């Protein structure tokens, strides 16, 4: 989730620029996703130490690394689209729009799964989904301001 929100904020910044630059967007996206993935991994280690007063086991570290790898993988399609633009195979704005679309669909899918699994009535589901979308928009806006 963190990586998807971060990635969306990064590509949106470049997508609304007057002169979209796929190279800078690609660089920013890669650095941001690696940073958020590493931060998430370190946070998991620290949280485990606080909660259990011990270092995580090898199996627990592997699970944490798999989660971090999943965060890195969330940028795969956006990175490929931006790389295609850098290589001249796509227009920069088209690549950025693809990246934005991938992140929006990813986050929407996660939100829909979360709401569907909550066992709520359709009205509660609608309110919950609207709340998630609203909070997501706030998160993206705050992240966009940071860039």
Characterise the protein shown here.
With 147 residues, the chain is mainly α. The protein has one domain (2-146). Helix content is 84%, strand content 0%.
What is the count of β-strands? Answer: 0
Q: How many H/I helices?
A: 6
Number of domains: 1
Coarse shape: globular
> What ranges have pLDDT less than 50 throughout 5 or more consecutive residues?
none
Mean pLDDT: 91
| Termini Cα gap | 18 Å
Rg over alpha carbons: 17 Å
Largest sheet: none
Secondary-structure element series: HHHHHH
Structural class: mainly alpha
Estimate the strand proportion.
Answer: under 5%
Helicity range:
over 70%
Keywords:
single chain; 147 residues; 0% strand; transmembrane helix; membrane
Strand and helix layout:
Elements: H1 2-15, H2 22-52, H3 58-73, H4 76-86, H5 92-117, H6 122-146
Helix pairs in contact: 1-2, 1-5, 1-6, 2-3, 2-4, 4-5, 5-6
Write a brief structural summary.
Keywords: Membrane, Transmembrane, Transmembrane helix. By secondary structure, this protein is mainly α. It has helices spanning 2-15, 22-52, 58-73, 76-86, 92-117, 122-146.
């Amino acid at each position: 989730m963190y990586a998807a929100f971060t990635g969306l904020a990064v590509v949106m910044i470049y997508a609304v620029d007057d002169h979209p630059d796929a190279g800078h967007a690609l660089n920013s996206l890669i650095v941001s996703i690696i940073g958020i993935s590493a931060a998430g991994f370190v946070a998991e280690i620290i949280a485990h130490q606080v909660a259990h007063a011990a270092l995580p086991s090898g199996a627990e570290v592997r699970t944490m690394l798999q989660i971090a790898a999943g965060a890195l993988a969330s940028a795969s399609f956006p990175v490929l689209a931006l790389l295609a633009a850098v290589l001249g195979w796509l227009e920069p704005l088209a690549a950025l729009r693809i990246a934005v679309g991938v992140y929006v669909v990813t986050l929407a899918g996660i939100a829909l799964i979360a709401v569907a699994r909550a066992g709520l009535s359709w009205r509660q589901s609608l309110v919950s989904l609207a709340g998630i979308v609203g909070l997501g928009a706030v998160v993206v806006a705050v992240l966009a301001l940071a860039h």
